Amino acid sequence: MTKRRIILIAAVIAVLVAAAAAGAYLYMNRFDAGEYVQAVLDVSYRNKTDKYVEITGVSEKEAEQIFEDNLDATMKGFETSDMPEELLPKYRELFSELAKSVSYTVGEPVRGENNVYSVTVKVKPVTLFPDTYAAFQEKAQAYADQVTDSVMNGAEMPTDEEMQREIYQIYYDVLKGQMDAGMLYGEAEDAVLHVTKEGGADFEIDKEDMDKLDSMLIEDAGGE
Length: 224
Fold this sequence. Notes:
Elements lengths: L2 H27 L3 H14 L3 H7 L3 H20 L8 H12 L3 E9 L4 E9 L3 H25 L7 H22 L7 E11 L2 E4 L1 H11 L7
Helix pairs in contact: 2-3, 2-4, 4-5, 5-7, 6-7
């Protein structure tokens, strides 16, 4: 390779590096709290990592772990319950699908004092659990009646583990059936997230605001 060619390659590399640095600098100086909130919600609930990686500078693997950590937190209660171990992967996949179905629309940010931005997020809560609770109760009662009839006719009483497995399977089938038929949503509500720009790529959403939004995304069986 000639000395001239080496110099040309070095010059091209220098230009590319400078362009990338300039792009990063411009991005940091046009901070958009709305884009940041969108990126956080997308990586947390939909496992969409591109924008979050771009804004924060974390690796793709670190960004993907955020979604997995949220699933871990969701499954923690089930893992300490009497749910049969063989059903845990099916429920984890179901809750993964459910998370990706939540509905939120990020509004324009409003800048306040001390580099704190207010971002309104319009949420339509998923109503899967209240929508299916009556069907689950009906199917669970039908199973209980079936067991009672079988035992009265001389069949052996199922063990507690067998009955728990059947109930959890029934609940899974009801939830999955409704999800496959089409997710239903409640009326839209607003949640306000406060975002603080600490400097550079250091941003933070108020934890209480984030917890409140999280609780609004999916209604529980009681409709609360």
